[in-house]
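anyone seen this seq b4? input:
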Amino acid sequence: MTDYLLLLLILLPFIGAMFVMSAKSDRHYAVNNVYRVSIWIMAVDIVLLLYTFSFFDVEKNGIQLIEKYQWLNNPEIALLLGADIFSMMLALSINLSLLIAAICTSRDVLHPKTLLASELLFISLLNGYLFAADIFSFYIFFSALSMPLIILVSTYGNQNKKNIFKRFSLYNLIGATLLFLALMLIYNLKGGNIPLNTIGHLNLTGTMQYVVWFSIFFAFVSRLPVWPFHYWMASINATLKNPLVFLTSNLIPLTGLYGFMRFWPNAVPATIGKYAPLFEAACIVTMLFISLISLSHKEIRYKLFAYTTVYCLLYLIGVFLPTGALKQNIGYSLFAYILIITVISFVLSHIEEIKKQLGLGQGILCYMPRASQCLSLFILAAIGLPVTPLFWNNFIIVSEIFNYSLLLGILVMLSMFIVALALLEELYRLKDKSYAACANINNIDLSKTRFIICMISLSILFFSFIKPLWFVF
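predicted toks r here
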């Protein structure tokens, strides 16, 4: 009964992307048709993910579902797909968040076919990346994931997108080249394509182990918001107004984090692992730098980017700790983290659209009770409201960091406190009644449909706090 499930999760959104691109360009007909088809495909993909979850034993670790498809006979290369609880949790949260963002995105958006086709392609490639279980398939999806983001940024980016593209293309080209080098060395050493879960059994010595592991390391770092690679991410995120595009750009760093989860914790030899504290120091410096800038930055998009950066690096530090016990906690935190930034992103998009139309600034939430309630609740959830899985699992991760290093734990907590203060500061400005006393503005609040979606998302967070895998029967 489980045959072709993982493959279908990859192919379904890809076929949907091809359908969207082939639709007629007549605006009155195509936009609504393309929009409905895209939403239904995303919804069906989520239903398939939930169905796939029913075949998993949540008490077991490791890959529980494997599918193999032959690609080439000479050389022998097969597509090996596999899933464990962590990859399934990440896939479900990303698919759910992109569905929420797509539903809440206006149909009057610029170039809707490009937007929806790119998002469906991104879902397809990301599902493939999360379910790839051999080194060749993993590399193909890792390299291809930058394609939808390039299309989206070229369509929805700002005037400086040429300079951003240079950095983005350079970093991703270097990362893809280094990963290709490492995997080809492994391919030649083992005499063929090998499963990812056998990487830890490689017998590498001398110069070979440094070339392979440092190539893998820098390939994944190129996708993460660590200095100096954070620049292109900050430049893009600060100017993207569309919640779908903003969310996509913020999901790209998670591909680097996932790469480390698959390759680094249990596979890296001690001769390479001794350099981990240097990288931890780079992560801490980046967290403090980004969070401090967010306090003085006037753009709330940058504050949200600072929040996503700090928490992404928090999980990365958790991956590098000399313990494998945090993997599930990181997965549960990521589920809530992705859902929270999705809702905050589309509420902010609505607020920014109204600010642009009416010229309002501080105090705008005084005229928007639904938006005010949603933004307030989700910002509180983002910074640690103790009724979400983000609070409890982050508490466990930070506790392990303190147990590993007191200084590292203090600096992590300081970064989290500063970025939380930046978000609360902006929330206060948006709700400042002193700027709203004389105005009388109606019909600018969130629609009832979007408000209901926010409340459903909040309910999911609440149930996930009670039982992380409550949807598995």
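The longest strand covers residues 65-73. The mean pLDDT is 81. kinda curious what u guys think
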